[in-house]
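Incident log, support desk, overnight shift.

02:14 A customer reports that sequence design results differ from what the structure should imply. Their input is reproduced verbatim below. On-call engineer (initials T.W.) acknowledged and began investigating.
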């Protein structure tokens, strides 16, 4: 039973590391942690084990489940950050650039604004 748990853990972690998008990670989560998942099926078999082995197998299975949840969450966060940085780094060359300001204010407008600033103080 321990070998099966460790095998499931290793295969799940290798699949998580190879995942390239969120849909793939979700399929891995369903495959291992879903209602009919591999780890869930092994957790259901714990009741058929001898009483002496149940606690150690149960703690190992729960540790693996928690580690898988954390790994899936970390992979989703990493994928989200990667898509955000890719979106930020993308430059649209079809957008017009920033145009310089043309002309200047009329002399009377400049004088009025300067006088207004003086009296506002």
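02:41 Re-run completed on a clean worker. Output:
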């Amino acid at each position: 039973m321990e070998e099966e748990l460790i095998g499931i853990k290793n295969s799940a972690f290798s699949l998580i590391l190879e995942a390239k998008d969120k849909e793939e990670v979700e399929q891995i989560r369903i495959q291992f942690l879903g209602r009919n998942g591999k780890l869930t099926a092994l957790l259901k078999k714990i009741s058929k084990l001898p009483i002496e082995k149940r606690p150690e197998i149960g703690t190992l299975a729960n540790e693996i489940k928690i580690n898988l949840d954390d790994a899936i969450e970390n992979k989703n966060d990493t994928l989200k950050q990667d898509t955000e940085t890719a979106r930020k780094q993308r430059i649209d060359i079809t957008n017009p650039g920033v145009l310089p300001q043309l002309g200047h204010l009329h002399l009377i407008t400049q004088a009025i604004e300067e006088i207004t600033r003086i009296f506002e103080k």
